[in-house]
Structures are given as structure tokens and as C-alpha cells.
Amino acid sequence: MGISREQAAENREAIVSAADRLFRERGVDAVGLTALMKEAGFTQGGFYNHFKSKDALVSAVMARAMAANEVRMAQGMGEASAFAASGDPAVPSKDGVEQYLSTAHRDDVACGCPVAGFAGDVPRIGEEAQACYAKGLAASLERMTAAGVARGLTLEQATRNAMARFSQMVGSLILSRAVVDADPALSEALLAAGRQAIEASDAGRAND
């Protein structure tokens, strides 16, 4: 007896959800179909009922992760909150940066920012998945740029600041995650240094 269309859609979503978690935690290349399908609660043979290849799954995961991140940003919970308006239009709020470069976000690899979570894998995945990642990154930067323009910056200033700020945030987070097991103190120091550097940069702009 076959399954309903609704059940098939639920099963597919379960596979994508499991893959999203495992890919972020272990890396795309390190996750085989057997482990993936076991995590999703299915046998390996059922994989090809939903995806023609692992590359197709990776593309679905990337599209899902980036779309979810865009929703978070639209709700003021993502990277754009690092550019939220403050009392002084020359100084962005610190809340978004502090949340992004926090111990909690560092430790939440499976559900955190996908731009940071998938950065190491992107050069080795398929073109379609790379395009999804690039589109998601561009959307993050565009939203952050729009927040900067709303604060009174020119488009050129806001674009430059968004790229520099987000690069520093993502870089600090990735490095902090990379060393957390081997050197927890260094991991915390990297997060703190990232927060302090951005705060100092904001203060400098406010004084210009």
C-alpha cells in the first residue's frame, strides 16, 4: 500500500530536517546516506523516493536553511538586528552583535546562522546549493544594508558597513567554534574580541 501525498511530504521534510542538523554538525561530506536516513527514521533505500542524489538533498537543505534565516531576520531575530535602530542614529544597537557573538549561538551549531554554519562546506558542494547559499548571504547583507540606510547612512556607506560588519561577525563565530573543544578560553576570547572590535568601530563612527 502506498503512502499519501501528505505523508510523502512529511517524510521528505523529515529527511531535509535531519540532513540540516547533521550537515552543520559534521560537515556535508562526513554524512553518509545510511546515517542520514537512520537519523530521519527511515531505511537507506527510501532516500531515492525523495531525492535523485545527495547533491539534490544538499540543495534542498541549503534553500530551506536560507529561507528560514530570512524569516528570522524579517522578525528581527537574525543578523539584521545587529543594525537595529538605536537612540543615536550614528550608532547601531549592540544587541544583535552580542546575541550573534554569544556562547549560546556558538554552541547552537545545528540551529544557528546558516551563513556561518555552512561556510566551510560551500566550496565543495554543487552549483545549485552554492547558488542558494550566495542568494541567502546576499539577502542578509541587503537587509543589513537597508537597516543602515534607515539610520541615515548613504547606500554606499551602509553597504560597506554591512559587508565589513557581517564578515567580522561570521569570522569571529567560525573561529570560536573551531577551537572551543581544544581551547575553551581562546574560544570565549575570540567572541569577546569580535564584540569589542565592532563596538569600538561603532564608537569611532559616532565620533566622526
Keywords, please?
single chain; 208 residues; mainly alpha
Write a concise synopsis of the structure shown.
With 208 residues, the chain is mainly α. 66% of the residues lie in helices and 0% in strands.
Structure description:
- There is one protein chain.
- By secondary structure, the protein is an all-alpha fold.
- The protein is 66% helix and 0% strand.
- It is built from nine helices and no strands.
- The chain has helices at residues 5-26, 33-40, 54-74, 95-100, 103-107, 114-117, 127-150, 155-179, 184-206.
- Helix 8 runs antiparallel to helix 9.
- The longest helix is centred in the C-terminal third of the chain and has 25 residues, at 155-179.
- The protein is globular, with a radius of gyration of 19 Å.
- Residues 85-92 have low confidence and may be disordered.
Mean pLDDT: 88
Multimeric organization: single chain
User: Helix-strand pattern, N to C?
Assistant: HHHHHHHHH
- Radius of gyration (CA) equals 19 Å
Strand content: under 5%
Give the structural class. Answer: mainly alpha
Bulk shape: globular
Set down the secondary structure blueprint.
Elements lengths: L4 H22 L6 H8 L13 H21 L20 H6 L2 H5 L6 H4 L9 H24 L4 H25 L4 H23 L2
Helix pairs in contact: 1-2, 1-3, 3-7, 7-8, 8-9
